[in-house]
Amino acid sequence: MATPAIRMFRRLEGLFCVYKPPGVHWKLVRDTVQTNLLKGLNDTPSQPLPHEVRFLVQSSSDGEAAKAVTVSAASVPVLSKHPLVTGPEFQDIRVGVGHRLDVFSSGVLVLAVGNGNKKLNDLHSTQVTREYMLEGEFGTATRDFSHTGPVVERSTYDHITQDKLERVLAMLEGVNQKAMLTYSKVDLRSQEAYEMAVHGLLAPEGKSPPIITGLRCIRFQPPNFTLEVQCLNETQKYLCKLVHEIGLELRSTAVCNAVRRTRDGFFTLQDALTRHHWTAADIMQAVQQYHSAKRERKHSQSLISAPLQTSEGNMAAAQEKERSKK
Q1: Do 278 and 32 form a contact (C-beta atoms < 8 A)?
Q2: Which residues, 6 or more positions from 50, have their beta carbon under 8 angstroms from its beta carbon?
Q3: Any idea where the domains of the chain sit in the sequence?
Q4: What is the longest distance spanned by two Cα atoms in the chain?
Q5: CB of 138 within 8 A of CB of 157?
Q6: 200-233, pLDDT tens digit by residue?
Q7: End-to-end CA distance of the chain
Q8: What stretch of H or E contains 176?
């Protein structure tokens, strides 16, 4: 029979996300969550100790009766099964990490427990988009494109307007959309490509360079500005370099002051657990919400795939009809 700790662990298996603060390594976040989960599992009430029947010798004060051995059957606990002897029931659990964040960055970090690590591999293979907020500043260039790196150049930025910035962003977005079509390996003249584009299902097949699927400015207060970026196969170093290249396109320089991931696939900031909620109880609730949301997504995807299959069937029937006429 499963112990309370094992039953609790089964409810913890799955995916969830936490908020990684800036300046903290992702390994420290993972180790902290793992320690809290082990503490929560081992703090569950333990099962009563099993009993076994033993024959106990009874002593007698009578001298003549002492020559005869008197025994009696008694039920006693098996002390070898006591937690103080066996140690904690869970001494290690596997906590996997999804798309990682460097020390400089913050935001949504997806983690997995137990069998959820298999789902983590599926998350990597499905080419889900991620969303970031980039805080940039015009007028400075550094060696590593971040505000903490050594300054290599300073420039003016008074000539930069929001219209000029948005034109550069539109140009970069168009270039990346062409790259998306190239790496998706789908015939652009087919009905399938049209349907996939309408439902936003186009994605690169296999390995590809970083691709931006969306780019817009949500705050412009020179020299500071904020960009919202949706992308695939990116790294935080690439995003910092993107801010630098935007500054060069505007005949100036720019550095990235902050990188914050606001969405990783279907995990958003609203789902992310902050530091004070990295407990077994809160993580269990987050995993259960993940399972319920997954069932809803499967239902919605089945509704989307039905029209696609119908259109493909209609196209095949039309082609067959044309052949029969010939």
Answers
A1: yes
A2: 77, 78, 81
A3: 1-46+91-125+268-320, 51-83, 129-264
A4: 119
A5: yes
A6: 666 777 778 999 999 999 999 999 999 999 999 9
A7: 70
A8: helix 162-184
DSSP for residue 50:
P
- Average pLDDT on 233-250 reads 96
Residues designated as active site: 102
Residue 258 to residue 21: CA distance in whole angstroms: 11
Instruction: Write down the pLDDT at residue 326.
Output: 53
In DSSP terms, which residues pair with 14 in a beta bridge?
Answer: 113
Look at residues 44, 47, 35 and name the one whose alpha carbon lies nearest to residue 92.
Answer: 35
> Which residues, including other chains, have CB under 8 Å from residue 267's CB and lie 6 or more apart?
15, 17, 108, 110
The encoded tokens of residue 284 equal 């269990």
At 202, the amino acid letter reads L
Q: Report the distance separating Cα 213 and Cα 203, nearest Å.
A: 10
Nearest-angstrom CA–CA distance, 74 and 77: 10
Q: Which two tokens stand for residue 240?
A: 């910092």
Q: Which CATH superfamily is domain 129-264 in?
A: Pseudouridine synthase (3.30.2350.10)
Name the DSSP letter for residue 273: B
Residue 8 tokens read as 């609790």
- State how far the Cα of 14 lies from the Cα of 37, in Å rounded to an integer: 13
Query: What are the pLDDT digits (tens) for 94-134?
Result: 999 999 999 999 999 999 999 999 988 888 777 789 999 99
How far, in Å, CA of 203 to CA of 181, rounded? 8
